[in-house]
Description:
This protein is mainly β. It has a single domain (about 15-190), classed as Pnp Oxidase, Chain A (Roll). Helix content is about 15%, strand content about 35%. The strands form three sheets. The chain has a seven-stranded antiparallel beta sheet with strand order 3-2-6-9-10-5-4. Strands 1-11-12 form a three-stranded antiparallel beta sheet, with no helix packed on it. Strand 2 and strand 3 form a beta hairpin. The longest helix has 9 residues, at about 55-60. It binds flavin mononucleotide. Flavin mononucleotide binds near residues 28, 32, 82 and 166.
Amino acid sequence: MKTTFGPQKILFPMPVSLVVTGNMEKANIVTIAWVSLLTSSPPTIGISVGTRGFSGKEILRNKNFSVNIAGVDIMKEADFCGITSGKNIDKFKEAGLTKLPSRHIQSPIIKECPLNFECRLTDHSVIGTTNHFVGESLEVHMDTDKVEDPLNYSTLMIEAFNPLIYIGGAREYRKIGEKVGDAYSIGKHLDKDAK
Length: 195
Ligand SMILES: Cc1cc2nc3c(=O)[nH]c(=O)nc-3n(C[C@H](O)[C@H](O)[C@H](O)COP(=O)(O)O)c2cc1C
């Protein structure tokens, strides 16, 4: 049996991202859960940012932003950046987060986030009251203590990474549990043609 909620009750579990736009002198942080990898070649990331907030206008002006994946250890700081506006305050200062220079864009990345993407704005549209920004990823940064081999991205230690997960709809934060299977592999058990 299933129950229905209508079309608007979006109950997705989503990793919490902190999106930064600005420069090393002045930059704003906005908490954005609606983030998606769009394409791998070119590597693009899509973010949904409300038209009423400060960040949407700033991203349009600066034409670049960084996407910083938050860990459980900065849950309070991430929540703070999602309930305050950069129009009135310096969120880096108030939340005690640290700017690090990016390699290819003016917007800094956040030191306290284990995974960071530098993005150049390549596309923009508005649906209802939400900006849809497409950013081309120009660089990916990862904390060296979160990967077994710093030269091999796939050796990511997810327990050390410990991403903060937002459960939309329920409005709560969770962390991920233990590994339960190997992707692109476990389904072969159901594939009658697989050898
Ligand atoms: C957990 C969480 C997730 C959020 N996700 C989004 C989102 O995906 N898109 C969005 O526009 N706002 C989202 N928000 C709300 C913005 O972060 C919030 O409106 C913020 O105050 C805007 O800041 P600004 O005015 O500095 O841009 C989220 C807030 C929280 C706490």
